[in-house]
Each structure stands twice: as structure tokens, then as C-alpha cells.
Design brief:
CATH architecture of the largest domain: Alpha-Beta Barrel
Number of strands: 18
Number of domains: 2
Radius of gyration: 25 Å
Number of helices: 15
Strand order of the largest sheet: 10-11-16-15-14-17
Largest sheet: 6 strands, antiparallel, barrel
Structural class: alpha/beta
Oligomer: single chain
Strand content: 15-25%
Shape: globular
């Protein structure tokens, strides 16, 4: 059973290269029981839940042999999580549950936690084996507040064993996002390009989230590139892999492959040897205007290949863009991309009766960047030169973008950003890449998000978000929303439906 990040089946073709730059979640189910209720009730309901887990083939979901009734039990259960490498837990209220020991366990565990409670199975058990789950979740929630904990409580936390499966799948994705950020390092190379104040942002909030930032000079990147020159066998192997991936038709400029391969080796070597205490890493690299005259190529194709391996490389030293891409990747276990929220869509680009997936024409826009999107996420693509930069620098040194139409399908547009006051803000919108030829250059696609036009004006513009957004290749808005809550991000913005006004929206013009 291949459950997507929001509990739905998905099927997507990605590159064969394994995406391994993110945590593997081992989810422990920990049963709890109030001592005045029969512990057998929790044990039998936990057994029924694990039967459904096995049927659904949910990987890495294990049940704790200790049922928590008191703090001594909680300590035993904590020891079990350490011994078994459990890095996220579901507190399962098979009956009312003891809120003190339960939340004591969550506090000491210190990693993502959720709560589920068992529904009553039938009228037969109400006389003597009633679990009182609604009461249990209320008291659990109250005690979570006393301990100032952040715990994931689903929209509908009282579940049958079968209903629990989708909730466990959702929480696994949520936990992957949270745990990934807690051991992430962002490598930045260089300052933002001249005249591009956008995407500059205080880094204090990243450290507050647990993300480490290592800022480096463009000269560091050049020195690293030159150090790789002697590793000719590795460069040849990477260049051959690039040629195989592209094939003859898409390999427009084969003469630059060895340079691109050397640059890829430089980044992957840095990734392997500079992470330090961090388990995972992403990049935010300066890619113009000095890059091309010095390196003699565009880095975009290399960026696209690393994205396919789970190592996003954000353009233009966009630190928060790199983190946003990584969060999308952790939410979906698929590559993500970074795009400019770029231009409007002329009417004559659309076929008559074009399906807009709940959006209006005014809600359409094009997401564009020079050529950083993973090839597996493109409908068609080839190596090109960067048209805008070629106007300033010429064609010869601006080759190396991966350009074409982004393939149609589900997407979530997302950004986590610090504003100028060092406060975290975010936006999330689910939508679609349309199967419409953009008739333009770059990695580019036509995007439909219902009520985007109003969202653009009253969130993106009004709250001064930059022009870069991260785009996932599956719907994961619900996962990101809950992950942000667990991370303590309070300002989460989503499109409002028609008729529901934004705080600053003029009701006379709406």
C-alpha cells in the first residue's frame, strides 16, 4: 500500500537514484491505560491496531511492549524507544488514559508525538468495557498545555483501528519534516546578487528551529571546484552518467559536461565532508552574475540532478528557499523545486474549455526558473543556455540550464520565511501544474491554485514575501501545515475561499 503524504495513494516516476538526504521515521505506538480502567482494553485495542498496520504494510511502525499506567512505566517505555531507534511516537489511548504519565513520557521523549484514541467498537462493550476516549483526549490536551508541549492532535483523533492507518501515514510525513529540520545544515555560497534585496532575511529564526547555517564565500566554491580537477576518474564517471541521463536529443552541449561533472563532484564532496554534526544538508548558491565569467557555465543542470537525489540547491543564495524545498521533499519523499512566481498567463495560451481544477483564469500564473528542476519532474527538457543572462554575458558562458515544461500534476506551493523583524511567516497553497505548453524558456509550468489572485495580493504581496516559492510534486499542504504548528510557526497563511475576506481586503472591491 503506497500511501501519499496525506493518506492517499500516489504513483510517481522518479529517478532511480535513491533520495536519502532525509530521516527515516520509525514510529512507535505506545499504549496507555488509566489504572482504574482494565489494561486489557488498551492491550486488545492496540493489538487490533497493529493487525491493521500489518495489513496496510506500513513500514517502520512498531508497538511498545510497555503499556503506560504510571511514571515508572513511562521510564520503561522511554528506554524501549532508545533501544529500538524510535524517533516519533503515537500515544494510543485504548481507554481514558493517565494524562500525567502520558504527557510526562512525551516531554521526556522530546521528538514528534501525536495522540490517537480508540472508538467504542459496538454497543456490547458499553456496559462494562467502555473506553471514554473523548474524555481522555480532552484531559491529554489540557496536560499538554500545562507542560507547554507541542503535540500533533489530528482533526478527528478518535478512531477505529482501520481509520488510524491514514492518520499514522500522515504523521509519519509530519515527523519526517520536523526531524529533518532538527538535523539540517544549510550551506550558503556568496551574498545575494546586486539589486536583489528579495530573499535576504535574518538567520536567527533558522537557528531557533534547530537548522544550522554555514555561510561561505564564492571564493570557497571556486577553490573547492579547482580541488576536484585531479579526480579525473570520478569526473569522467559523472559526465558519462549525465550523458546517459540526457541521451543524444537532450544533450545539446556535450562539450560542457565535464565542467558540469566537476562542479557536481565539488558540491557532493562538500556535502559529504562539511556536514559536521548535521545529518542532512541543502545548498543555497550564488549563481549569477559573477558565476558565469569565472566558471564558464551555468550550474542549473547540476542543481537539478542534486534535487533528484534529495539535496535541493536553491538559486540566488536563497537560504529560506532551500529550507522550504527540503520541507516539501520531506513531506512527499519526492524531489521539490524552487520557482519564481513569475508571470501571468495570456488567454490565447489556453485551449477552449481548459480544465482549471477549481481556479479561475485570473488565478493562473507561471512558475519559472532558469533550469533547476529535476529532470524526472519535467514533461520535456534539454540542456540550453540562459536567455536572460546571455543578454549581458553572451551565449558561450551561459550554457548549462535544464529547460522545458514542468510535467502536469498535483503541486503544493510553499514558503517558510523570516520577515525583517526576524519573525517566521509562511504560506501554503495546493494546486496543479497544468498540461499547457508555456511557450517560453527555462524550467517553467502553468500553475492553477484556486483563489490565488486574492491570495497573491493579500498574503504574498501584503506580507512582503519574496518572489521565490518552493513547489512540491504532490499535494502536501496538510502535512506542512501540521509540521509548522509542531515547529512553533504561528503565522501560517492559506488561500481563503470566495466570500471569506482577508483582514486587509476591501469588501467593496472584493
Amino acid at each position: 500500500m503506497n500511501l501519499g503524504p496525506e493518506g492517499r495513494y500516489i504513483n510517481i516516476t522518479t529517478k532511480e537514484t535513491k533520495m536519502n538526504n532525509m530521516p527515516e521515521i520509525k514510529l512507535g505506538i505506545v499504549g496507555v491505560s488509566r489504572d482504574c480502567f482494565p489494561i486489557a482494553l488498551t492491550k486488545s485495542r492496540l493489538a487490533a491496531l497493529m493487525t491493521e498496520v500489518k495489513k496496510a504494510k506500513l513500514a517502520n511502525v512498531v508497538d511498545c511492549p510497555v503499556v503506560i499506567e504510571n511514571e515508572v512505566d513511562a521510564m520503561k517505555a522511554l528506554a524501549w524507544t532508545k533501544e529500538n531507534g524510535v524517533n516519533a511516537v503515537c500515544m494510543f489511548l485504548g481507554n481514558f488514559g493517565p494524562e500525567g504519565p502520558t504527557t510526562f513520557f512525551v516531554e521526556k521523549f522530546g521528538k514528534p508525538a501525536m495522540v490517537l484514541a480508540a472508538k467504542e467498537e459496538s454497543k456490547k462493550g458499553l456496559a462494562s468495557d467502555r473506553g471514554d476516549a473523548l474524555c481522555g483526549v480532552l484531559n491529554f490536551s489540557y496536560c499538554v498545555g500545562l507542560r507547554r508541549l507541542r503535540v500533533y492532535i489530528p482533526e478527528f483523533p478518535n478512531v477505529t483501528a482501520k481509520e488510524a492507518i491514514a492518520e499514522l501515514a500522515k504523521f509519519t510525513a509530519i515527523a519526517r519534516v520536523v526531524n529533518g529540520l532538527k538535523s539540517l545544515k544549510v550551506f550558503g555560497f556568496g551574498p545575494r546578487p546586486e539589486d536583489f534585496f528579495a530573499c535576504n532575511a535574518p538567520i536567527q529564526p533558522l537557528f531557533d528551529l534547530g537548522v544550522n547555517v554555514q555561510e561561505n564565500s564564492e571564493l570557497d566554491l571556486r577553490v573547492q571546484f579547482e580541488k576536484m580537477a585531479t579526480r579525473t576518474a570520478e569526473i569522467d564517471a559523472i559526465a558519462a552518467d549525465m550523458a546517459k541521463e540526457l541521451g543524444k536529443k537532450r544533450n545539446t552541449y556535450p562539450e560542457i559536461l565535464r565542467q558540469l561533472a566537476q562542479f557536481e563532484l565539488a558540491l557532493t564532496d562538500w556535502y559529504e565532508n562539511k556536514r559536521g554534526a548535521a545529518e542532512y544538508a541543502v545548498f543555497a548558491d550564488k549563481c549569477w552574475p559573477a558565476f558565469q565569467p569565472v566558471f564558464k557555465f551555468e550550474p542549473c543542470y547540476v542543481n537539478s540532478r542534486l534535487a533528484g537525489r534529495g539535496i535541493p540547491v536553491a538559486c540566488e543564495v536563497d537560504l529560506y528557499g532551500a529550507v522550504s524545498e527540503y520541507m516539501c521533499q520531506c513531506a512527499t519523499e519526492l524531489p521539490a523545486t524552487l520557482l519564481d512566481i513569475n508571470n501571468s498567463v495570456p488567454d490565447d495560451l489556453l485551449k477552449k474549455g481548459e480544465k482549471l481544477h477549481g481556479a479561475q483564469k485570473r488565478d493562473l500564473f507561471m512558475g519559472f526558473h532558469c533550469g533547476n528542476t529535476c529532470g524526472a519532474c519535467m514533461k520535456n527538457c534539454a540542456i540550453k543556455y540562459q536567455l536572460i543572462q546571455a543578454r549581458l554575458m553572451g551565449k558561450d558562458i551561459t550554457k548549462g540550464t535544464l529547460e522545458g515544461q514542468i510535467r502536469p500534476g498535483d503541486t503544493t506551493m510553499f514558503r517558510l520565511q523570516s520577515n525583517s523583524d526576524a519573525k517566521l511567516v509562511s504560506y501554503i497553497g495546493d494546486g496543479q501544474f497544468l498540461d499547457v505548453d508555456p511557450c517560453s524558456f527555462g524550467s517553467i509550468g502553468v500553475i492553477a491554485i484556486p483563489e490565488f489572485a486574492r491570495f497573491y495580493r493579500h498574503v504574498l504581496v501584503q506580507k512582503r514575501f519574496p518572489h521565490h516559492g518552493a513547489f512540491a510534486f504532490a499535494h502536501c499542504g496538510g502535512i506542512l501545515f501540521e509540521a509548522l504548528k509542531l515547529l512553533g510557526v504561528a503565522d501560517i497563511n492559506t488561500p481563503k475561499p470566495a466570500g471569506v475576506l482577508y483582514p486587509d481586503e476591501n469588501p467593496f472591491f472584493a
